[in-house]
């Protein structure tokens, strides 16, 4: 082999190495660029997921607090309505006694026509009042039934809120499972487990 062919062969080898080195350098730069983009996307996704979880947690806590407050108010209201209902029952009994007393007074003074006529009018008024109290008692009983159905609805809402809270916890678990690959790369330890 001549010296010239050896030089040409060395030049070709150097050209091939330079091409390979340039290609590897381009490949390395491209991979660094993709790695940087992947890191940015992972950071943004992590921020969005944290915001979503914080929002869901705060909404759940607020809903539980509101239902708890509403349940307490409903319980107090039911207690007051029951007291009112019993008071109206006592008032109705008192009105019956007053009506009987007025009847007895009317019978006692039936000899005096003017007083007897006034007593008859009073007796009629007391009867009207007794009827009104009876209607009020019926209305209070209807309100009491409505309060029972409201309490039942509140229990159902509490159950649904419990189910929603469980679903949020399951979603949190699923997202943590999805985030597991991100915790194994360059961002290991940043994403909460």
How would you sum up this structure, described in words?
By secondary structure, this protein is mostly helical. The chain has a single domain (3-183), classed as Helix Hairpins, CATH 1.10.287. The protein has 2 helices and no strands. The protein has helices spanning 3-108, 113-183.
Give the structural class.
mainly alpha
Q: What percentage of the residues does DSSP assign to strands (E)?
A: under 5%
- Termini separation comes to 68 Å
Amount of helix: over 70%
Tally of distinct domains: 1
Summarize model confidence as the mean pLDDT.
77
List the defining traits of the structure above.
single chain, 193 residues, mainly alpha, Helix Hairpins, 92% helix, 0% strand, rod-shaped
Structure, briefly:
The chain has 193 residues and is mainly alpha-helical.
Topology:
Layout lengths: L2 H106 L4 H71 L10
